[in-house]
Design a protein that fits this description.
- There is one protein chain.
- This protein has helices at 27-41, 48-55, 59-63, 69-81, 95-112, 130-146, 150-178, 185-199, 204-213, 218-241.
- The protein is an all-alpha fold and 249 residues long.
- Helix 1 crosses helix 4 (69-81), helix 5 (95-112) runs parallel beside helix 7 and helix 5 runs antiparallel to helix 10 (218-241).
- The N and C termini lie far apart (45 Å).
């Protein structure tokens, strides 16, 4: 098996190629421009030819660093994870506030880059990227500081991440549809109210619920809903620690 081959193809499972002369483009330049393109136009706009045009280089210059578009996306996703904030916890009593900060930061990253939701299940071995590895190490340290043993700290990290991803994915998909258009989120919601209220006529609880949301800021409602769910997830994790701290086993 050659150095460029792997039973699990990924940019992270093969050595980074080296050459004596300076390549026309650096990996960092390629990732930076790909991220700009994705943020501006979405995943469907990304191609090696298109990216090469933006960089003023032929696509073959990009292929020196990545074998295909999938590997390029792995690199860009890892770059985005580097934006996430994971506080260090010096006082174990501060673990929950740090977890809230981390969760809100991850949600913000996804909402800033809504194209991510369409590739998160296709990015291969993304967890081997250096940024995500570093963030994972910090999150494990956060939950270990709370009192969880390492294996349960890992489960706690995955539980919080699953909640954030699940919630933010729906939000990002909606924001992606609005991107580049003239209508705001509030405009879209207001346009939908007549149809929603008509559909709820036969359902008294939904009719009453919809009335409580009428005229409110949809972004604020999303923030409050996210915060509520996150607090309930953390309530469950805190219960595992018991009244004196430490995992309940």
């Amino acid at each position: 098996m050659s150095a460029d081959e792997s039973p699990l193809p990924s940019v992270w499972t093969r050595p980074r190629r080296q050459r004596r002369e300076q390549p026309a483009l650096s990996r960092e330049q390629i990732v930076s421009e790909a991220l700009k393109l994705l943020d501006a136009e979405g995943i469907d706009a990304l191609s090696m030819r298109r990216l090469g045009g933006r960089l003023g280089a032929v696509a073959t210059a990009i292929y020196w660093h990545v074998a295909n578009k999938d590997e390029l996306i792995e690199l860009v996703v890892d770059e985005v994870y580097g934006e996430m904030r994971v506080p260090e916890v010096e006082d174990p009593a501060g673990w929950r506030a740090a977890a809230v900060d981390c969760a809100h930061s991850l949600r913000s990253v996804i909402l800033r880059h809504p194209w991510m939701v369409s590739v998160l299940d296709e990015v291969g071995l993304a967890y081997l990227g250096p940024n995500l590895m570093r963030q994972s190490e910090r999150m494990l340290a956060l939950f270990e500081a709370a009192g969880f043993a390492l294996r349960e700290a890992d489960q706690a990290v995955k539980t919080v991440a699953a909640y954030v991803m699940g919630t933010a994915t729906g939000e990002a998909a909606m924001l992606a549809k609005l991107a580049g258009g003239a209508r705001s989120e509030r405009d879209m919601v207001e346009d939908l109210w007549p149809a929603a209220e008509a559909a709820a006529l036969a359902y008294p609880r939904l009719r009453e619920l919809y009335a409580t949301y009428r005229g409110q800021d949809p972004e604020k409602n999303r923030e409050e809903t996210f915060a509520y769910g996150l607090e309930r997830v953390l309530d469950g994790l805190q219960a595992r620690l018991g009244p004196a701290g430490g995992s309940a086993g």
